[in-house]
Amino acid sequence: MARSYPVCAAVFVATAVLGVLLGVAASPAKAITAEQFSQLTYVQVKGSGLANRCPTVESNGSEVPVTAGSRLTNVCFEPKSFAVEFETDKGKEFATTKLTTRQTYTLAFIEGSLDANPITFKEQDGMDFAATTVKLPDGEYVPFLFTVKELVAKGEGSSFKPGFTWGGEFSVPSYRTGGFLDPKGRGMTLGYDQAVALPAMQSDGQGGQDELFKETNKVFDLGKGVIEMEVNKVNQELGEIGGVFVSKQPSDTDMGAKAPRTVLLKGIFYGKVVKA
Ligand SMILES: *[C@@H]1O[C@H](CO)[C@@H](O)[C@H](O)[C@H]1NC(C)=O
């Protein structure tokens, strides 16, 4: 069974958030261009943390024009901060979190079609999801599948230039897949139908089973996320673009047992336009 959640972000104050992000996103010490990346050997990358970095763009020219039937390739999303929405007395707030996943959370080598006027990128392929876990100040762990699957991003015009903003919605598949078994051996397509250690709760008519219903009846939740991006560097000669992103997406639901939390990610992106 699959079910959908509505887009988590009704109002998205992208420009304000992007503006703040612009000041903190770059870390020049580790800046490495796509061309430099392509010259590294496996051993040079292994264990260095570089596989988790997006390439940077060296400015050249003022814009990268897009023509119909182009492709955007080698697209990379590297989050720099992870916040999780939680309830307070004053309403909803985003708590900054501590990342507990190692340097394996960047999305890379993504590609898709790119059309002009308005610029429209449709995500099709690549390493487009990364299981990630963050920890809230109160010690709660929040796992989520960081992704931009099936992203359709649009922006006005037909060329990328510094200040160009674009964005759109993407799909967020379940953090776990159908083959997952919980600690009591229950699963969606495999495993026990119910927790075998709780036989007394099966014979009580209704109440006990209601309590266990969500844990027992696993579902593959499909969520929706939304991303906003702003280009801040282009390389006309190489067709490269780079900039910052803010994305919002639901977290893991433990296969339907829990309500998803909203995760707010800010970071940098990279992409290379390849003409038809
Ligand atoms: C862009 O790069 C090319 C090749 O390196 C160079 O000839 C050209 O002058 C550069 N243009 C700008 C505006 O920097």
Describe this structure in words.
This protein is mainly β and 276 residues long. It has 2 domains: 13-41 and 49-175 and 220-274, Porin; 178-219, photosynthetic oxygen evolving center fold (2-Layer Sandwich). The chain is 10% helix and 44% strand. Strands 3-6-7-10-12-13-14-15 form an 8-stranded antiparallel barrel. Bound molecules: 2-acetamido-2-deoxy-beta-D-glucopyranose. 2-acetamido-2-deoxy-beta-D-glucopyranose is lined by residues 60-61, 237. This is Oxygen-evolving enhancer protein 1, chloroplastic.
Strand and helix layout:
Blueprint lengths: L1 E3 L9 H9 L11 H5 L3 H4 L18 E2 L4 E19 L2 E6 L1 E2 L7 E9 L3 E9 L1 E7 L5 E7 L1 E7 L3 E2 L4 E8 L34 H10 L3 E16 L4 E11 L11 E13 L2
Bound molecules: 2-acetamido-2-deoxy-beta-D-glucopyranose.
Q: What is the CA-CA span between the terminal residues?
A: 40 Å
What does the average pLDDT come to?
86
Listing every helix as H and every strand as E from the N terminus to the C terminus, the arrangement reads EHHHEEEEEEEEEEEHEEE
Major beta sheet, strand line-up: 3-6-7-10-12-13-14-15
Beta-strand proportion: 35-45%
Outline: elongated
- Provide the CATH architecture of the largest domain: Beta Barrel
Uncertain stretches of 5 or more adjacent residues = 5-29
The hetero molecules present are: 2-acetamido-2-deoxy-beta-D-glucopyranose
- The CATH homologous superfamily of the largest domain is termed Photosystem II, cytochrome c-550 precursor
Major beta sheet summary: 8 strands, antiparallel, barrel
Number of domains: 2
How many DSSP H or I helices?
A: 4
Q: What's the count of strands? A: 15
Instruction: Provide the helix percentage.
Output: 10-25%
Q: Structural class, judged by helices and strands?
A: mainly beta
Under the CATH scheme, which class of the largest domain?
Answer: Mainly Beta
What gyration radius follows from the Cα positions, in whole Å?
A: 21 Å
- The CATH topology label of the largest domain is Porin
Signal peptide: 1-31
Family: Belongs to the PsbO family.
Main location: membrane
GO biological process, one term: photosystem II assembly
